[in-house]
Design brief:
With 228 residues, the chain is mostly helical. The protein has 11 helices and 2 strands, in the order αααααββαααααα. The protein starts with a helix and ends with a helix.
Length: 228
């Protein structure tokens, strides 16, 4: 870990591509060291952003959503991990004695640990960086644009707290433009039903324009009541 920390904290040399390569080496190097019982994968993905910020490729506070890209390509991520772990695992003979004891024999040198082949992991990381730029960021920008359209459509016509309209627009988006009965009850003490209806319409128009907006159901009196 001391050597890993020295490498990770040293300034990146060269251009942005070198900084991105180093970020992948830091990320995968950490997860291969596996210093904690839990959370190593999450920390390793955070280290991608941290390393890029330290190198000045990303300004502090900006995020290249590589973690999201990795989640969308979990199989490729596991393959990248196995490109290093599987050859090393083949050098070990492991015999299970009982639930708490193993007998292990290592048949090799330290070279696979000291000079692990990072080709597949770096290639994967660069692919995820391109995916994050070409897909994740564009999708997020499109979502934010549509979210802002729905929010402003409601705020132009109704006086509603910003926190409530933001939460309700997001809730309506999660359920494809329809607020559940429980959500309506949750906000009934401070948001009028007609405002909730307007939020549904605004979200549907912004995010789901192909969905027909059904009119609000009206209870009609029966024949007997209408003649009284």
């Amino acid at each position: 870990m001391a050597d890993f920390m020295a490498f990770a904290n040293a300034p990146a040399q060269g251009d942005g591509n070198n900084a991105l390569i180093k970020a992948m080496l830091v990320s995968f190097g950490f997860v291969f060291n596996h210093p904690f019982m839990d959370g190593n994968g999450r920390i390793s993905r955070f280290l991608v952003h941290h390393s890029l910020c330290r190198a000045g490729v990303l300004q502090q506070g900006l995020i290249l959503p590589i973690s999201v890209a990795m989640q969308h390509h979990e199989g490729d991520y596991l393959s990248a991990l196995k490109s290093v772990s599987a050859p090393i695992r083949d050098l070990w003979e492991v015999a299970v004695i009982d639930e708490r004891a193993l007998r292990t024999t290592f048949n090799g040198s330290a070279d696979p640990y000291r000079y692990w082949d990072a080709t597949a992991t770096v290639e994967f990381g660069l692919q995820m960086a391109h995916y994050a730029l070409d897909h994740s960021l564009l999708e997020e920008s499109e979502f934010l644009k549509r979210f802002d359209i729905a929010r402003k459509a409601v705020e132009r016509s109704y006086d509603i707290q910003n926190r409530d309209v933001v939460n309700l627009v997001r809730m309506a988006y999660d359920t494809r433009g329809v607020l559940s009965k429980n959500r309506r009850k949750q906000f009934a003490d401070r948001v009028e039903p007609e405002v909730l209806d307007a939020i549904e319409r605004a979200v549907t128009a912004a995010f789901f324009p192909d969905i027909d907006i059904e009119p609000v159901a009206v209870t009609k009196p029966n024949a007997d009541e209408s003649t009284r």
